[in-house]
Structures are given as structure tokens and as C-alpha cells.
Amino acid sequence: PANxxxxxxxxxxxxxxxxxxxxxxxxxIFTEHAFMVYKIYIQSAGAKPVAVKETDERADVDAILxxxxxxxxxVFLANPNNPTGTYLPxxxxxxxxxxxxxxxxxxxxxxxxxxxxxxxxxxGIKLVDAARRSGDDNVIMTRTFSKGGGLGGLRLGWAYASxxxxxxxxxxxxxx
Length: 176
Prior knowledge:
Layout: E1 4-7, H1 9-21, E2 27-31, H2 37-44, E3 48-52, H3 61-67, E4 72-78, H4 90-99, E5 105-109, H5 125-133, E6 139-144, E7 157-160, H6 163-172
Parallel strand pairs: 2-3, 2-4, 4-5, 5-6
Antiparallel strand pairs: 1-7, 6-7
């Protein structure tokens, strides 16, 4: 439970991430066909949005890694992605996490995880756990009940992260 936070939709968590970890002069990466709210939240924090080209409408780990600069603070990655319907297999996500600098937060937006049946898919829990085991707090998985649960009007999201991240969110978010 200490590694889980509930929210007013997963969008609230995405906004809190930008508000908490981005400042003017920072950069945040997302892929070209990603959820449009990433760019909105990045800009609202005064940071620079960096859209990375996809390969065959699929996130490209090498292109994401090539876009990382010393100013990069967050990589937002919808996995699986909507509207492309593509996903990165667990081994590609593991490679992405391993190659990102420690100071870069990897945000795995798994809003559509319930719709993936491929055996090589993992929504992000194992990535968060691996980061926690190594003493890192730089991976967070966001989820929502509005897609697979069919509860779009309820606005109920959640995230799984290190306790230091969930503790921080619980201190800065709105109380109600």
C-alpha cells in the first residue's frame, strides 16, 4: 500500500509528476503519437516538450535514449499506446530503464494494459520493483479504471512507485 497512490484519474498523477519534477529549463520526452496531455503538462510546468519520432507507429527505445540530454527529467511513455495500439515488450522497457540516467524519471502510462494479451508485455510493476530493489525512485507506473474497467465517468486512477514518490505526492496534492 505504501507504494500505491489513488487519484482523480491517472491524468492527475501525470500532472503532479510534471508539477513536481519539472521546472523552466528542464525537458521531458514523449513519443510523437503519445497522449496529448503529456505535452500540455510539460508546458504548464515551464519545461520544454521533446517529441520523439516513432518507428512504424511504435515507440523507439534508441530514439528516446538519443533524445535524452542533461536537461531531461522525465520520459513519458504510454505502453500500450493509444491511438496506435502498439506496445513495447518487457525486454525493451527493461533496456530503456537500464540505459536512462538515474536522474531521469521513467513514467510508464499503462492506461490500456487490460487490453494487451501478448505474453511479452508487462505493464510496469516489475520495472518499478526492479528500480526499488536497486534503491532508485525513478520509475512510476500509472493506471486508470476508466478504460478496462469501463468507469470513464468515475475519474479513478492509481500509480505504483517507490514509497518516496508516493509520500511526496501525498504531501503536495489537493486534499479532496
